[in-house]
Amino acid sequence: MLFDEATLRKLNAMTLSSGRVRAGRMRGDRRSSKRGASIEFADYRNYTPGDDLRRLDWNVYARHNRPFIKLFEEEEDLAVHLLLDGSTSMNWGEGGQHKFDQARRIAAALGSIALAAGDQLKFNLLAPKGVAAPFGPARGSHQTIRFFSHLEAITPSGSPAVNSSLLNYSLTGARPGLLILISDLLDPDGCETGLTRLLSRGHEIVLIHLLHSTELAPVLDGDLKLIDAEFGYTQDVTVDQGSLAAYERQLKLWLGKLRQFCVARSIHYSQHTTSRAWDQYVLLNLRAEGVVK
To answer: Which of 170, 216, 242, 256 is most buried, most CB within 10 Å of its CB?
Structure first.
C-alpha cells in the first residue's frame, strides 16, 4: 500500500481543480458553465416559442402571469491524464527522499483524488519508446486499489524521453482534459516542444518538477568522477567553491527559464524537493497553489 487509510480519507475529500472542465460522455460531479438538464437549478429565462413546456415554472406563471423557463447547471466529468517520468534519473535517493518513490506516491494521491471525484483517469509512464504501463481510462473509487497495485509494479529505467514521450502522447487522440506531468525534466531535449504540442491539443497542464535536494544543493568536494546515471558517460571534475557557484548559477538560470516558459503559456508550474514530505506537498502546497481543493 502506497499510503495509509487515514491519508486516503483526506485525499478522498478533495478534488482536482480545473479552470476548463470539458464535456464528457458521463455526467460527473463538476458544474459546467453550460446550461443543461441536471437537477441543479441555476436561473430563469423568458419563455420563447418552441421551448419544452415541461421546463416551464408554473408556480411563477401563476403569480406573475408571465412564462419563465427554468435553467439547470449541467454537471460534467473531467478527463485527468497522469504522466510519470520513468527514466533512470528518477531512480535516485534513499529512503523517504527517493525521487521515483516520492513521484509515485504523488501520482497515487492525485489519481485517487480523481477517481473518488468521479473523474476519468488515465495514467502512463514516460519511457524511452514513448509511453508505457498504461492504466485506464478508469472511473470511481472502487478502482483505487487496482491503480495503486499498478503503480507499485512499475520501475524507472532507460534514457530520458520526456520530450519525445509528450509528443507521442499528443498524437494519441486522448480526450482533452487536465494533464499532470511529474518529472525531474532531466532530458537534453527539454520538454518545451512536447508541452506546447499538448497545449495545442486542448489540454490544461500542471507540471510538477521534482528534484532531489542534492540536485539543488550538491554536497561535493575535491577530485571526483561523475557518472551519468542514464547514458553511463563519465567526467573527471574538481569540485570547489567556484564550480559549485557556477552550478548554482546555471541551475537558477534553467529553473527561471522553465518558470518563464510556463507562465507565458498558462502552464501551472510547481516545484517539489524530496526533502519535503510528499503528503505535505499534496495536502498543503498543492492546495495552496490551487491544484487541489
So the answer is: 170
Note whether 81 and 138 are within 8 A (CB). no
Residues 187 and 205 in one domain: yes
**How do residues 139-170 score in pLDDT, each as one tens digit?**
899 999 999 999 999 999 888 789 999 999 99
Share of the chain above pLDDT 70, in %: 86
The answer on 97 and 39 residing in a single domain is no
Query: What CATH number is associated with residue 93?
Result: 3.40.50.410
Count the residues in the chain.
Answer: 293
pLDDT of residue 127: 85
Which cell numbers in the block locate residue 39? 437537477
Taking alpha carbons only, the member of 23, 24, 34 closest to residue 71 is: 34
Q: Taking the CA atoms of the chain, what radius of gyration do you get in angstroms?
A: 23
Task: State the pLDDT at residue 36.
Answer: 46
CA 15 to chain centre: 12
Q: What is the pLDDT averaged over residues 39-43?
A: 56
Full-model pTM: 0.81
Domain that holds residue 157: 5-20+77-213+269-288
User: What CA–CA distance (Å, rounded) separates 61 from 168?
Assistant: 56
Angle value at C-alpha 166, between 137 and 11, nearest 5 degrees: 45
Q: CA 269, CA 206: separation in Å to the nearest integer?
A: 6
